[in-house]
Amino acid sequence: xxxxxxxxxxxxxxxxxxxxxxxxxxxxxxxxxxxxxxxxxxxxxxxxxxxxxxxxxxxxxxxxxxxxxxxxxxxxxxxxxxxxxxxxxxxxxxxxxxxxxxxxxxxxxxxxxxxxxxxxxxxxxxxxxxxxxxxxxxxxxxxxxxxxxxxxxxxxxxxxxxxxxxxxxxxxxxxxxxxxxxxxxxxxxxxxxxxxxxxxxxxxxxxxxxxxxxxxxxxxxxxxxxxxxxxxxxxxxxxxxxxxxxxxxxxxxxxxxxxxxxxxxxxxxxxxxxxxxxxxxxxxxxxxxxxxxxxxxxxxxxxxxxxxxxxxxxxxxxxxxxxxxxxxxxxxxxxxxxxxxxxxxxxxxxxxxxxxxxxxxxxxxxxxxxxxxxxxxxxxxxxxxxxxxxxxxxxxxxxxxxxxxxxxxxxxxxxxxxxxxxxxxxxxxxxxxxxxxxxxxxxxxxxxxxxxxxxxxxxxxxxxxxxxxxxxxxxxxxxxxxxxxxxxxxxxxxxxxxxxxxxxxxxxxxxxxxxxxxxxxxxxxxxxxxxxxxxxxxxxxxxxxxxxxxxxxxxxxxxxxxxxxxxxxxxxxxxxxxxxxxxxxxxxxxxxxxxxxxxxxxxxxxxxxxxxxxxxxxxxxxxxxxxxxxxxxxxxxxxxxxxxxxxxxxxxxxxxxxxxxxxxxxxxxxxxxxxxxxxxxxxxxxxxxxxxxxxxxxxxxxxxxxxxxxxxx
Length: 713
Prior knowledge:
This protein is α+β, with helices and mostly antiparallel strands. The chain is about 15% helix and about 35% strand. The radius of gyration is 59 Å and the shape is rod-shaped.
C-alpha cells in the first residue's frame, strides 16, 4: 500500500526563511539609523491599518521598539483579506512592516503548514476577537521568523485577554487541527472481474494515522484506459472512517495510470524581500499520487467438455456437457455472447487416445481442418452451444454430420447413435470458438480463439460390444467311461479384441480373457442311482440356477481354463480345447487351433456319475460387455448314468446220495444265487470211475460223461 505525505519543513522553506531573516535584519538596522536622522516610520503597519479586523491590541511597551507608539495601536489579528469573505491570512514576522508589493505566494507542503491551513479554514468565518487573536497567536507561535521579537511581545502581553488564554486556545486548537487535517493517503487497487473491472481502495489519515471521514477524494484516469461512474474520466467521493472502494471499469488494454488524491486546505506563504511574510489558506489543494495497473478490455474464454458416459453401448446417444470458463484471473465481459461448435470423431485406440495439440498461430478453423485430414479418423457428429457468461453449462447431443453444419440443419439432423460396426472403437470431441462464428463486437473482445483439443480424457468414450455365447454338449446322456464333449459358440466381440492393453490416463482397462469351467453335481456314492443324481440337476429345487454353485460334497469344480476371448467355436473335451471360426465367416484359415491339451471330461466310476455342466465366463472390459452362460442352461449339461449294481453269482451243488450201488440212480442239486442277465444257463458235467486210478480230488484225468443242461432259476 502506497502512502503520500510531505516533510515537516522543506529545504526550500528553511533556506527562504534564513535568507529572509538575514535580509530583514539588515533592513531593520537601516531603518533604525534612518529614524534617528529623518522621520520615524511605522512598524507593523498591518496592525495599525488593521483596526477593522477582529482581534486584540498588543500592550504598549517602553522597551519594545515597535510597540512604543501610542498613537498607532497594534493588533494581534488577521491581515487584510483581498480574496473574498472571511479571515484567511496572518502575519508570521513580528515587528515587520505590512505591505504586499508582489504576488509571491508559494504553496507549502510541510505538515505544520498544512495543519495551520486547516486551522485557518476552520476559523475563517469566526469574527470573535479572541478567536481571531488566538489563531494569529498560533501562527506566530509556530512560524514567526523573528522568534525573539515575538517572545518579547508575548511576555509584554495583550489587552482585554490574558496571555494564558491565548496560549491555551493556541494549544487546543492546534491539536484539534492536527486531528482533523488530512495528511496521508493509503490506497491500493483490487481486481473484481479479471482485469476488466476493480476498485481503488482509499483511506485518508491524519498525522497520527487515524482515518478521517468526509474528506473529498478524487480519482482521475490520466490515459483514459479506465472509466468511473459509467464512463467518466474522473470521480469524486467522500472518505469514510474506514476504506472507501471506488469502482472502475476498463476501456482499453494496457497500463492504466490513475491519479489518486484528496482535497485539503492549501497552505501558502507570502515571501516578501522588504516587508513581513504571511501565511494564508484561501482554497483547497489536491494532494495526490499515481497508481499504475494493468487493465484489459478483452478476455480469454475457455471450454471444458465432459461426456455423460465414458463407456457406451450400441444404440446409445453421445451426450456431452460443455461448460464455459475464463483463463485464470480473467473474467467474462458483460454483454458478450459466444457460439461454440463441437465435432465428434471415431477411430481406434491408437488414433483416438492421444492429445493433439494446437500449433502456434493456428486458428480454430485451421486446427479443425488438420484433424479432419488425419487418416483413420472419421467425423461422425457435430453439435453447438451458446454462452453469455462464465461457468455456464449446456447439455449437448451429437447430431449426425461429417463436416460443418449450420444451426438450422443441425436442428433437423438425426441424433447420432453408436452403430453395430463401431463396437470396440473410441470417440472424442473437439470444441472450438472461432471469431468467424461470432458477431463482430463480440469477436473483438476475444484475446484469442478457443480450441478444446482433440483427445481430452473427459471428452472421450469407448463403444462396448455386446457378445453372446451358446453352450451345447454333444451328448445329453452318457455312461461311465465315456468322454463328454461340449461346443461353445461366441459372437459379437470386436475383430481386434485382445489387442488393446488399456490406458490408465483415459481410465480404460485392457481386453480380458475368458474362462471355461466344468462342474460336476451328483450323489457322489458308488451306490448312486440315476434317481439319486437327478435331484442335483441344475435349476431343480434347492439347486443353483443361473449362477454357479458353491463347492461342497455334491458339487465340484473339475475344470477351469483361461482362454483367449475371440469370436468362434470352442470345442472342449476329448483331449483338448480347440478354437475354430464360425461357419460362414471369411477367414484365411479354418483349421482349429489348439488352446489347451490333456482335457478329458468323463466319469470313471459310479461315484463320479451325475451332471456335467459347462460354463462360459467372459468378465467384460472397456471394449466389451461381460457375458456368462447360465449354469442351468438346458444344452450346457450332460448326465452320466451309473452302471446297474449286481449281486455276485454263486453256485452250490449237492449230490442226492453220497454212496450208491452199481446200477443205482443218483442225481445232483445246484443252488444258484446272484443277479444274472436274461438267457444265462448252467452246465452240469458227470465223471465215471476207472479201474487202476486212485480217487483224487483232481479229476483232470477223469472221463467225462454226458451232461445235462439247464437254465438258471
